[in-house]
Amino acid sequence: MFHIRREGAIEFFESRRKRLGDVYRANMGLRQALVVSHPDAFERVLSGHKRRYVKGALYDAMRDFLGLGLITLEGDAWKERRRLMQPYFHRAALESMVVTMVEVIDRFLEDLRRRYPKGGEIDVHREMVRLTLDVVCTTLFGPRVAGRDDLPFDVLGDIIEVIEARQFVMLPLWLPIAVNRRFHRVKTSVDAMVHRALARARAFHDDPAHRSTLLGMLLDTTDEHGRPLGDEAIRNELLTLYVAGHETTALTMTWLFALMMGDREVLPRLAAECRERLGDRLPGFGDLAELGYARMVIEETLRLRNITPGLGRIVVEDDNVCGHSVAKGEVLMLWLWGLHRHAPSWPDPERFDPERFTPEAKAERDPWSYLPFSGGPRMCIGNGFALAEAQLIVAMMMQRAEWETVPGQRIEPVALGTLRPSGPVRVRFRWR
Fold it and tell me: Percent of the chain having pLDDT more than 70?
């Protein structure tokens, strides 16, 4: 694993994919792994023969911090939790959350106008982090329960870093070493913040406005025997949704601007669609289906800069993947970065081209060639939330200002659990 960290995951896996093809074996330290980037392999592992693969010990570092939640549970326990959580991401719930998203985005843009009355230059990653943190705190906890000051961005960065550190050094947590001390310090701090929010939520639980938040809904959730979720289960889901819900959209928006550096076609067309559809009014849930080009731009962004570049699985039953045998106990790496550059599906794969996502183009393409939120039964439960939030942010930003990514920046993707930019992403804007 140390040589992967030294080279960087993208360079390590991509250099070998280009040399060896869509299916190859790689030395990942103590064990070999079969690395796959072919759509057929993804379908087999995530759907057709999914029972032969588990997350297993590969996710222990995440379990140590996030606990047992939707990302880390497996088998029947995962099925039951997914069944309990699914209603909170259905259309009716999403419509309600869109109202909240729009209110938060509107406040953010007005605050940005106050800070930059004539426009200016910003680090769009930092600004998107501020915005999406407010969105997730408001929709998840409610404004009276927790806000950006209760769950600051620095804490999110700490969470990701300590989880990544344990993925590379899985030593017993009782050892008094620096990486473990930091792990315990961050976890204690985060647990205290989440439990404070949970206590406040119980105090406000009779408020109808609070009951419509995800935390309010979780407090009302009961299993098939009528038993409520325990505090630990609620804590695990809150933390999972906080980390995943915040990071996904902030990075999607950051990469959207980074990828359009030097663009002279996409941004004007995107702005024209948003202004033509919305005029000067705030968007609503019904506008999402009409903002088709915005959705195409977001989808192409997620193809080139998928927030999670790879997914690991452990083989629990012998199988054959694209002509390669895998035995029980082996590791299989689903290399999403490579999948989204699979030549038959994506001609000229490094070119940023939203036209790849017209309805006609999507209908002709293998559905397993594009998996920004994974695929099969374990597809990310919050994909609709993330896409709606990104569309609304794009629409309202284009509606109110003209934007240009500062040319000449060198912005490299760095895989640290999620795919982050190597430095600030500078964007200029001018109010309309």
Answer: 92
Query: Are the C-beta atoms of 153 and 129 separated by less than 8 Å?
Result: yes
| 323 CB neighbour count, 10 Å cutoff | 7
Residue 333 has pLDDT above 70, yes or no: yes
pLDDT at position 113: 97
CA dihedral 233, 236, 241, 242 (to 10 degrees): 130
Tell me the per-residue pLDDT of 379-411, one tens digit each, with 9 for 90 and over.
999 999 999 999 999 999 999 999 999 999 999
DSSP 8-class letter at 330: -
426: helix, coil or strand?
strand
Give residue 148's identity as a one-letter amino acid code: R
Phi, psi (degrees; rounded to nearest 5) at 324: -115, 125
For residue 340, the one-letter residue type is H
Query: Element (H or E) spanning 312, and its range?
Result: strand 310-315
Work out the number of other CB atoms within 10 angstroms of the CB of residue 164.
17
DSSP string, 170-234: ---TTS--HHHHHHHHHHHHHHHHHHHHHHHHHHTTT-HHHHTSHHHHHHH-B-TTSPBPPHHHH
Nearby residues of 402 by Cβ (< 8 Å), 6 or more positions away: 271, 429, 430, 432
Task: Identify whether the C-beta of residue 282 lies closer than 8 Å to the C-beta of residue 409.
Answer: no
How buried is residue 202: exposed, middle or buried, by Cβ count under 10 Å (0-12/13-18/19+)? middle
Task: Concatenate the DSSP letters of all residues of 360-402 into one string.
Answer: HHHHHS-GGG--BTB-GGGS-TTHHHHHHHHHHHHHHHHHHEE
More confident call, 152 vs 78: 78
Tokens of 220: 């009302």
The pTM for the full model equals: 0.92
The full set of domain ranges for the chain reads 2-402+414-421
- Cα–Cα–Cα angle for 243, 249, 253, nearest 5°? 140
Highest mean pLDDT among 70-79, 217-226, 297-306: 297-306
Q: Tokens for 332? A: 């299989």
Q: Does domain 2-402+414-421 have CATH number 1.10.630.10?
A: yes
H/E stretch holding 325 reads: strand 324-326
DSSP assignments along 34-67, one per residue: EEE--HHHHHIIIIITGGGEE-GGGGHHHHHHH-
